[in-house]
Design a protein that fits this description.
The structure holds 2 protein chains of 2 kinds. Chain A is mainly alpha-helical. Chain A is globular. Chain A has a two-stranded parallel sheet. Chain A has 24 helices and 2 strands. Chain A is about 70% helix and about 0% strand. The two termini of chain A are about 25 Å apart. By secondary structure, chain B is α+β, with helices and mostly antiparallel strands. Chain B folds into 2 domains: about 230 residues, 3-Layer(aba) Sandwich (Rossmann fold), CATH 3.40.50; about 110 residues, Beta Barrel (OB fold (Dihydrolipoamide Acetyltransferase, E2P)). Helices cover about 25% and strands about 35% of the residues of chain B. Chain B has a 6-stranded mixed beta sheet, sandwiched between helices. In chain B, helix 2 packs across helix 3 and helix 3 crosses helix 4. Classes of the chains: A mainly alpha, B alpha+beta. The interface between A and B is medium-sized, with 25 and 25 residues. Chain A: Keywords: Cell inner membrane, Cell membrane, Membrane, Transmembrane, Transmembrane helix, Transport.
Chain lengths: ~575, ~350
């Protein structure tokens, strides 16, 4: 079990032998890798975030420690309003997302329902499109003069302010993020043993009372996990409010202060601190709530909840609900598609005519964006899986001191909103020049790729850890006992067996990094360095550019969709391969 | 508490195309402690769940008292069931778990408190009322599950393998506890188990099930001594089964094994089948030949403390013989030629 294969005695002979042992630690390649990764994470995550924190508590003129910036923040009515708006929008998005997710989760887990496959796709369709991409299309469908309201006005003489101000952000965000609640809630519903429910029925409970007293409380941990995630994501999101032109929220305010006033203005930093505190708080709250509440009660031989067959009327109602939600969830995609093929779409339920011109314009105007995206996301995803694999190996297979710390540090990126990371990079790297030039690093394109790498690392790390957990330690030990060195056995045994998981991690990291906006928008210094997400943002700024912007949005959706499907296929194939290996 | 009998008439039940119960008929007396005994897949749990109202709706009739409950929702049956997994709700305290059924029945809260306290007292766990279920041991959870069920004063009590999640020593204790409670409450009780010792030690009568069919119903003693078929004979205790046929010679009846060995049957014995069932303790082993003895060779022997178990090849098969052990008795070595004398008074011909 020794992790450190001792180097041959000859190399250690001499001076080292005569020194005390603690002066010559038995450093191996793995140790060096661990130290290197630790330095990288400190430099690219810890230091920038710490910078942001420090500046928020510093007097901009003298540099002395002060709380004055926070006092100023809460004295400004715009900031107070932004704070409450952010809070309100996040909370309401959780509510609306729950209203969408609850019936879907309930129908799939409690009934034999042939539409379950529809619901499963519902769970992943929204996630293949970054919310800000759909925001403009949603305006055209649900806005004051959008399809739905035009029809409502024609037929019934009234309209509904779906997209007015904060409503728009809430609608777009809840449609985009409800899958987090759906997935978590369904999983915990499925984990309730049927005897839990039967025992209640046996004692005289049924129907809604049974659901309220037994089923929902047992599913609560899953629900809270999903809801907390939705809350943070919405609270931190920059792209959607920006594109909907809702600026009186925290993230847009941070962006606007830094981009219009400059990186010395303390308000952007104060907002960053608030964003981080809320992220950490909601993660912590959901952790506290979950502690000691592992309600997964499925027994051996038990099989989740009893499923019931629907009566014809119930089936019709279930289908109607699912189809209505499906349409709602697909509306940004449909709208975007129409917009990308439409000539002019204004004050009309549908575009006036259809054309390919938008795609031509898009291609001419955004070759650079696409090339940049492939480059940045490629670098980020490659680094992610390399570092992810290394950390996974160090945590699971070595006894290196502080190995858990590496894991925590990499995962901590989850709690750092993109805006905050962006501001941190601007602040930290504007004073450092790119090697061999006199340009500041903050405006160097490599920094964008590194920011994306840090943002996606937690997800890649989870994928790599899962992949490594499936490789039995005995396989590695067998190689070592047959004479392979630590390095050889990692190269020849461990990595090849992890390939499926690593590849899946790479593809997901790539696809999601390709459409990341909140960190990159802070770091793009010239349009030549801009990636695709920023390109969409630029196009969407002008009404004439919307068609081409939508076309670019479609490209983004396709990239993410292909990535998601590919990673699913890779995971499935890998699973099959492994299980057939176990069969004999 | 009122006592209700249970009558099961021609019950069939299928999961899709798989028929699990194939025409079950059974009468359980009010106040009786009854067991369903059978191997896994025999349909015993399915039958129990059908009485409680879980699973597919069966064909046939299930009467509790004189009410046919087939098709009735589980919450309208007033049948108490204790689940194999106990199914204590992890988000509720012990007290809330036990009070649940009373709240569903809209019992006034003052009465709920009294009844819950009494029920917890009954299972000796009043001091744990404010704990959460995951802070309890397996045996305590089991007793809380029992309290939660009996507190609503059900017409019948159903126990689905209630002891299977407990360790061996606790199991013996709990089955005595169960019996004490059942006698104290006088509840008609059905106990599902695959463990014959559990059934033997607790129930008044039992039904042995196999393949969705009741094989035999009776008291533990009847079933052990007078099995009606080879399945029951084999399932209850160890049975030596020799093949052959019954020969009648005037007043004498004897069983002639396929190997030609003869065992004379007692007067008035019935049974004409081709098998004779001999329990290990009804065979004695000896080094010397006697009348009606089977010659054999000791293949293997095990010292079990109170007895020595020999495996002897004789009569065309391997026969298990139990000899009670007393200090100083000799232990017949493996390979020795011996003679087996069967006490055919207790033998059954099937």
């Amino acid at each position: 079990m020794s992790q450190n294969t001792s180097p041959p005695a000859a190399t250690r002979a001499g001076l080292a032998d005569r020194l005390p042992r603690w002066l010559v630690p038995n450093l191996t390649g793995v140790h060096l890798v661990a130290v290197f990764i630790a330095l990288l994470l400190i430099g690219l995550l810890l230091v920038p975030v710490a910078q942001v924190m420090i500046v928020a508590f510093q007097d901009p003129a003298t540099g002395a420690a002060t709380l004055q910036n926070f006092v100023d923040f809460f004295r400004t009515s715009l900031f107070r309003e932004s704070f409450w708006n952010s809070f309100y929008v996040s909370a309401m998005s959780v509510v609306v997302a729950t209203v969408i997710a609850l019936p879907l989760a309930y129908i799939t887990t409690r009934f034999h329902f042939s539409g379950s496959i529809l619901i499963q796709s519902l769970g992943f369709i929204p996630l293949i499109m970054p919310p800000f991409v759909g925001a403009v299309a949603m305006q055209l469908i649900f806005g004051r003069n959008g399809t739905v309201n035009l029809l409502l006005r024609d037929w019934f003489g009234f309209d509904i302010p779906f997209m007015e101000g904060l409503n728009g952000v809430i609608l777009v965000q809840s449609i985009h993020y409800f899958p987090f609640i759906l997935i978590n809630l369904s999983a915990s519903l499925r984990n309730i043993d049927r005897s839990m429910e039967e025992a209640a029925q046996n004692l005289g409970s049924h129907g809604l009372r049974l659901f309220r007293r037994i089923v929902f409380p047992l599913a609560m941990p899953g629900y809270i996990a999903g809801a907390a995630l939705v809350f943070i994501k919405v609270f931190d999101d920059l792209g959607t409010p920006l594109l909907l032109n809702v600026n009186n929220m925290l993230a847009p305010q941070a962006f606007l202060r830094i981009s219009s006033i400059g990186i010395s203005d303390p308000m952007g930093y104060v907002i960053s601190v608030i964003l981080v505190v809320f992220s950490v708080l909601s993660l912590w709250a959901s952790f506290l709530f979950m502690r000691g509440k592992d309600y997964a009660t499925v027994q051996k031989g038990g099989g989740g909840m009893a499923k019931r067959t629907l009566k014809p009327a119930e089936k019709a109602l279930a289908y109607a609900t699912v189809i209505f939600i499906l349409l709602l969830v697909l509306s940004p995609h449909i709208g975007l598609l129409l917009l990308s093929f439409g000539t002019i779409w204004s004050f009309a339920p549908l575009p006036d005519g259809y054309t390919f011109q938008n795609y031509v314009t898009m291609w001419e105007g955004s070759k650079t964006f696409i090339m940049n995206t492939v480059l940045y996301a490629g670098i980020a995803a490659t680094l992610d899986v390399i570092i992810g694999t290394a950390i996974a190996y160090i945590v699971l297979r070595t006894q290196i001191f502080g190995r858990k710390g590496l894991d925590y540090l990499a995962t901590a990126a989850l709690a750092v909103p993109g805006v905050v990371l962006g501001i941190g990079y601007l602040r930290t790297f504007h004073a450092i020049d790119v090697p061999f030039t006199d340009k500041p690093m903050a405006s160097w394109w490599v920094i964008i790729a590194l920011a994306l790498m840090i943002r996606r690392l937690p997800y890649a790390l989870r994928a790599c850890t899962a992949a490594l957990q499936q490789v039995s330690h005995a396989l590695e030990e067998a190689a070592e006992s047959l004479g392979a060195t630590k390095r050889r056995s990692i190269q020849k045994i461990v990595i090849p067996l992890m390939t499926g998981g690593i590849l899946a991690g790479f593809v997901t990291s790539f696809a999601t990094a390709a459409v990341e906006l909140s960190a990159t928008i802070m770091l793009v210094s010239s349009n030549n360095d801009a990636p695709l997400a920023y390109g969409i943002y630029l196009f969407m700024q002008t009404p004439s550019g919307r068609g081409a912007g939508a076309a670019l949005g479609i490209v983004a959706v396709i990239v993410v969709a292909i990535g998601t499907i590919a990673s699913q296929i890779i995971i499935e194939r890998d699973k099959k391969l492994k299980s057939s290996g176990d069969a004999h | 508490m009122k006592k209700a009998g249970i009558t099961i008439e021609n019950v069939h039940l299928a999961f899709g195309d798989t028929e699990v119960l194939k025409g079950v008929n059974l009468d359980i007396q009010p106040g009786e402690f009854f067991a369903f005994l059978g191997p896994s897949g025999s349909g015993k749990s399915t039958l129990l769940r059908a009485i409680a109202g879980f699973g597919p709706t069966p064909k046939g009739r299930i009467l509790i008292g004189d009410r046919d409950v087939v098709g009735l929702d589980p919450w309208k049956r007033n049948v108490g069931m204790v689940f194999q997994s106990y199914a204590l709700w992890p988000h509720m305290s012990v007290r809330d778990n036990v009070a649940f059924g009373l709240k569903e029945r809209k019992v006034p809260s003052a009465q709920i408190k009294t009844k819950v306290d009494a029920a917890l007292e009954l299972v000796d766990l009043a001091h744990l009322a404010d704990r959460m279920p995951n802070q309890l041991s397996g045996g305590q959870q089991q007793r809380i599950a029992l309290a939660r069920t009996v507190v609503v004063e059900p017409d019948v009590l159903l126990l689905d393998e209630p002891l299977s999640n407990l360790d061996a020593s606790l199991r013996v204790h709990m089955r005595r506890e169960l019996l004490r409670l059942q006698r104290q409450l006088g509840l008609t009780t059905i106990f599902v188990t695959h463990d014959q010792e559990e059934a033997n030690t607790t129930c008044d009568r039992m039904a042995v099930l196999d393949g969705g069919v009741i094989q035999q119903v009776g008291s533990p003693l009847e079933l052990y001594d007078r099995p009606e078929n080879l399945f029951v004979a084999n399932f209850l205790g160890t049975a030596n089964i020799l093949e052959g046929k019954v020969e009648v010679d005037g007043n004498e009846r004897r069983f002639v094994t396929n190997t030609g060995d003869q065992l004379s049957l007692p007067e008035g014995s019935t049974g004409e089948g081709g098998n004779i069932v001999l329990r290990p303790q009804n065979i004695s082993i000896s080094r010397t030949q006697a009348a009606d003895s089977l010659p054999g060779t000791v293949q293997h022997s095990e010292f079990l403390g109170s007895q020595i178990r020999y495996l002897v090849s004789a009569g065309g098969t391997e026969i298990v013989v139990d000899q009670s052990h007393r200090a100083g008795h000799d232990w017949i070595e493996t390979g020795a030629d011996v003679h087996l004398v069967a006490n055919t008074q207790s033998a059954v011909v099937l």
